[in-house]
Amino acid sequence: MDSVGVAAAAPDAGPGPAWQSKCPWGAPSTTSISCSLADVMSEQLAKELQLEEENAAFPEVVAAAEGPFITAENIDTSSDLMLAQMLQMEFDREYDAQLRREEKKINGDSKVSISFENYRKVHPYDSDSSEDEVDWQDTRHDPYRADKPTTTPRRGFIGKGKDITTKHDEVVCGRKNTARMENFAPEFQVGDGIGMDLKLSNQVFNALKQHAYSEERRSARLHEKKEHSTAEKAVDPKTRLLLYKMVNSGMLETITGCISTGKESVVFHAYGGNSATEDKVIPPECAIKVFKTTLNEFKNRDKYIKDDYRFKDRFSKLNPRKIIRMWAEKEMHNLTRMQNAGIPCPQVVILKKHVLVMSFIGQDQVPAPKLKDVTLSSDDMKKAYYQILNMMQQLYRECNLVHADLSEYNMLWHDGKVWLIDVSQSVEPTHPHGLEFLFRDCRNVSQFFQKGGVAEALNERELFNAVSGLNITADNEVDFQAEIEALEKMNEDHVQNHGKKLSTFSSDGDPPIYDE
Ligand code: ADP
Ligand code: MN
């Protein structure tokens, strides 16, 4: 396995003829799909196709016979830095254990005891100190770090009188352009002009920039072809270390492999350990969701979180790295609410930065099938429908949440019932678009079950009213949607005027209910 590949090479892996045979995720399978025009228009299909494309290079592995992804003994040790860090971590742990034994021996039953605390070695990666956080965010190679172009003051000039300098000033501009070369990919050779007082004209800079970007894309394409490419992108070294730490601490036994890789997250399967330090019982099998939202996708998704007042105060101050963590945090909070309401969903085990560990829905490394992939008897289909209706109501009323990405893609069929997953984007109903999200969820659910032959399935408008308890009477989609938006607007106006959200909606023409 190549130096940066995620998987540890099995010790006995001989030099195979092709990389496929060595890949711990198994050989990619090619699937062909046939679909209707309606399917072509579907966003989900687009996502699916993208996933399939990715899976061709980085296939999902279920019940893999190949070696595990991370175990305490077996981990990628080809990165010198990481190897050193891991060894140090292990050394520190042994040292501290020895220290504790000595401390115990010396103190015995004595009432006055000596503490060796100050002599303990806590490995930096083993503590959750704020220093760690700083280190995490400020690395030069942080892939999520936003470009920080030097800004010109808004008024467009600096200085006074005859010393006035505008943003178009040739010298200033030239220097800025030179400085901006730093933003090019590290592989891109710009010479050592950065250290000099070099002034690049806009024309030269732009040509250079264009070239740098196309070089970057070209090298990315070349890179793609190498065996480890997609795996490498799936988790960065810092994340790998975080995962290793979980195994090393005994919380997890083994991380066996990847079960899903999407645009926004990678999900791994792991066997739970029997960590003595955590007071929680670790489930025998766990799912590890690693959020890998990059700046681009974060922009697409920010409407979910930006307007979620629970996160509002924090949002503006955050860098992208922290926002990714907030997704993970959001998923954790939402899962906990659901768990408390008794909705079948993964149970949260632990959240570390952007990595969420939860119980695994499935068995023996095989994840439970998504509702879209399973063929249910008409009885089970009906049962599933009523269960979902019930869950949607519970979610709305007891958890005060709207799933906001509810469909047959995010419901698993396991143990004869439906389990809800993927709730990082879930919002409270009073979110500025909360009701629209709910309506979309209702449309997905309603269509799925109507197509699936459940005669009792309510249409999307009936379902919306049944879940929300609202009484929107419009008998067509357009008017219904308009009424929903009017309600949302009323809520927003209320926030403007009172600085508070309504706790519930009412559509009966009554004044909005607000209770403390
Ligand atoms: P995404 O945002 O990438 O859609 P999901 O939370 O939906 O993230 O997870 C992606 C896939 O990983 C799911 O469709 C499911 O197959 C699998 N998965 C996620 N969480 C679990 C879990 N707790 N147990 C089993 N499989 C899971
Ligand atoms: Mn999903």
From TrEMBL:
Entry's EC annotation: 2.7.11.1
Gene Ontology biological process terms from the UniProt entry: defense response to virus; innate immune response; ribosome biogenesis
Catalysed reactions, semicolon-separated: L-seryl-[protein] + ATP = O-phospho-L-seryl-[protein] + ADP + H(+); L-threonyl-[protein] + ATP = O-phospho-L-threonyl-[protein] + ADP + H(+)
Cofactor(s) listed in the protein's UniProt record: Mg(2+)
Compartment(s) of residence: Cytoplasm
Extent of Low complexity compositional bias: 1-18
Principal location: cytoplasm
Protein name (record): Serine/threonine-protein kinase RIO3
High-level lineage: Eukaryota, Metazoa, Chordata, Craniata, Vertebrata
